[in-house]
Design goal:
The structure holds 2 protein chains of 2 kinds.
Chain A lengths: L23 H10 L3 H9 L2 H13 L2 H4 L17 H22 L1 H9 L3 H5 L5 H17 L3 H15 L1 H6 L1 H28 L3 H26 L9 H12 L10 H22 L8
Chain B lengths: L6 E10 L2 E11 L3 E5 L6 H8 L7 E6 L2 E2 L4 H7 E4 L11 H11 L4 H14 L15 H13 L5 E5 L7 H17 L3 E5 L3 H7 L2 E6 L2 E7 H8 L2 E7 L5 H7 L3 E4 L4 E5 L6 H10 L3 E7 L4 H10 L9
Parallel strand pairs in B: 3-8, 3-9, 6-7, 7-8
Antiparallel strand pairs in B: 1-2, 1-4, 4-5, 9-10, 11-13, 11-14, 12-13
Helix pairs in contact in B: 3-4, 4-5
The chains are: A mainly alpha, B alpha/beta.
């Protein structure tokens, strides 16, 4: 752009509303993220299953089309049932994709600002630590929303539009389940990734830490359960806790011996711990002790 | 000079990790450019960080541009620009993107922020390098980029923490010229925190000297400069023969030192030619006559030598 004014002039124009400023963080972060071809390609791959599921739902209601290839299908009621199991499978696949994406995107979000001493630049402006955390959280959470509960609800909408209002009203709990389970998962992994990013400045190690927390936690939890003949191991087995929540919300067979309330409490505690860890690190300057 | 105080401190104390870093700072500063001086560890940066709300206050309070630093922090940050001492940038961003980002965080709409970012970078002399990534900048360029982000949103007060740190002489001169330009534009106040006396002397109207977490001296350099215009140091040869008494009768304040040296503050209406005349009347040779002036270094050293001062010298 052409610059005509080369002297200092104070700014006197309009200002943006303060409540919306946390959204500046995801806007700039996404621009940088999608410059990485790998992230862009992986993000596109994350849409394969939802798109495939949408096509499957459509074909499930167009058996006359499929009967051209197999005449037996014309007399059947459909290829598969769109119910709890369908959305549980959808959630487990998309949760895995979201987890992998988070392990690539999350580690650099806060650690970059910490290692480059950028936090004073944020906090010397009318921009609080809470807004910073919410802004950074929304970088991942919104990114994950578009590959988890948003397409999940779209699938529900497609199925509902093809089946009719009666199906929608009878299966509204499915939409609730899609939203709640995916939201809990994205919130959990986003907060964990941010907390790790704040404490581990080396990206590769931070990404590895996320995997360790889930896989090692899961293995350790099961070992505790087996050796001590207790259910206490589920408190650190986040994947099992999430599985139990999905089982409950999608009304399928119980996944584990732990109750949904206990599983929700365990995940809530992990989220609270992540917020606390994040809060301790996200400040303009650390006080040397 | 403005009369409204820019910074007011009222017994401000800060305790970090159980140690008292700032101890009952009290004072009022109203210069367009305020220098914050002190040896390493005196509490300069802590004071700045406290004023910006980065550190909790353990006692007392303060006001910036009339706003309470305890209760109106957000309002203060709207009106303040800050240039940190250390390298501070957002990795992988070029200068124009970062300055735009900072402008948006300060509340500017995206289009205005982009325009201001270009202007600010041109203003600090980084116009041609504005699309380069900040992590590839030299130290001098990084300092300029930090200055650009500090002024991009048009603050009323800019706080510069060691702006000339690590700069080569020409870059230092460029930085000082910019600070003077900003000062002379009249649109903002500047707080310059530095341990380089020459930088402060060159740019500041008012100076605060900190020592061990206390304010030991506040002075208005402009007023001191005016006073110093009438401060002479003479070296005489011969018998003084009532020279000092005669000068005092004219209204000068004199102090006779050894080896014929005399320190003198000229009285109102007394000119140097009157002193020459007095010396000539007494056949006294004036071997040297110089305008002695307390430099900032003198003021600083005096403040450093002084005992812990219960009240601020002003």
């Amino acid at each position: 752009m052409a610059v005509y004014k080369r002297t200092y002039k104070p700014y006197t124009g309009a200002m943006t509303p303060e409540w919306s400023r946390f959204l500046i963080l995801p806007r700039f972060a996404w621009r940088t993220l999608f410059q990485t071809r790998f992230i862009l390609i992986f993000y596109v791959i994350c849409f394969f299953y939802p798109v495939g599921a949408a096509i499957a739902i459509y074909l499930n209601h167009n058996l006359s089309f499929l009967s051209q290839f197999s005449p037996k299908l014309a007399s059947s009621n459909g290829l598969f049932e769109v119910g709890g199991r369908f959305f549980a499978l959808y959630t487990s696949i998309q949760a895995a994709m979201a987890f992998i994406l988070t392990s690539f995107v999350g580690p650099g979000l806060v650690s970059g600002d910490l290692s480059n001493n950028a936090l004073p630049l944020y906090f010397c402006r009318p921009f609080s630590r809470t807004e910073y955390v919410v802004g950074k959280l929304s970088v991942i959470a919104l990114l994950l929303a578009f590959i988890t509960w948003v397409p999940g609800l779209l699938l529900f909408g497609i199925q509902g539009s093809l089946e009719g209002w009666k199906w929608v009203s009878a299966n509204a709990w499915l939409a609730w389940g899609v939203f709640v389970t995916n939201f809990i998962w994205t919130l959990l992994i986003s907060l964990l990734a941010l907390a790790i990013s704040a404490w581990v400045r080396w990206k590769v190690v931070a990404g590895g830490m996320l995997l360790v927390i889930f896989f090692l936690g899961s293995g350790l939890g099961q070992a505790i359960n087996a050796i001590l003949r207790t259910d206490a191991g589920y408190w650190i087995d986040l994947a099992a806790d999430f599985g139990q929540i999905c089982s409950d919300f999608y009304r399928i067979k119980d996944h584990t011996d732990v109750s949904t309330e206990e599983a929700l409490t365990s995940l809530a505690l992990m989220c609270a711990l992540s917020v606390w860890l994040l809060w301790r690190k996200v400040r303009a300057y650390e006080v040397a002790r | 000079m403005t009369t409204n105080p820019v910074i007011e401190l009222d017994n401000l104390s800060v305790r970090l990790s159980g140690r008292e870093i700032l101890r009952g700072l009290t004072g009022s500063l109203s210069g367009r450019t305020i220098g914050l001086l002190g040896p390493n560890g005196a509490g300069k940066s802590t004071m700045i960080n406290t004023l910006l709300g980065f550190y909790p206050i353990s006692g007392g309070t303060g006001r910036i541009l009339g706003l309470d630093i305890r209760t109106q922090q957000r309002e203060i940050r709207r009106q303040v620009g800050y240039m940190p001492e250390n390298d501070s940038f957002i990795g992988q961003m070029n200068a124009v993107t970062q300055v735009r980002y900072m402008a948006e965080l300060s509340g500017l709409p995206p289009e205005a922020a982009l325009e201001r970012a270009h202007e600010a970078l041109y203003y600090v002399g980084l116009g041609e390098a504005r699309y380069r990534k900040l992590n590839g900048y030299s130290l001098g360029m990084k300092q300029m980029a930090k200055l650009a982000q500090a002024v991009v949103h048009g603050p009323k007060l800019v706080i510069l923490d060691e702006p000339t740190n690590g700069l080569d002489p020409s870059a230092r001169q460029r930085m000082l010229r910019l600070i003077k330009e900003m000062r002379d534009s009249g649109s903002m106040h500047i707080v310059l925190c530095s341990h380089l006396l020459r930088d402060v002397e060159e740019t500041c109207e008012e100076v605060v000297i900190l020592k061990q977490g206390k304010i030991v001296h506040i002075s208005n350099l402009e007023e001191e400069r005016k006073l110093n215009k009438r401060f002479l140091e003479l070296e005489t040869y011969g018998i003084q023969n009532g020279f000092v008494d005669a000068a005092e009768k004219l209204g000068c304040e004199c102090a006779a030192l050894d080896n014929g040296r005399v320190k003198m503050i000229l009285g109102d209406g007394v000119e140097i030619r009157d002193i020459y005349q007095l010396a000539a009347d007494r056949d006294l040779q004036l071997r040297r006559l110089s305008h002695r002036r307390d430099t900032l270094e003198d003021i600083f050293l005096k403040a450093m030598r002084g005992e812990d001062t219960p009240e601020v010298k002003r």
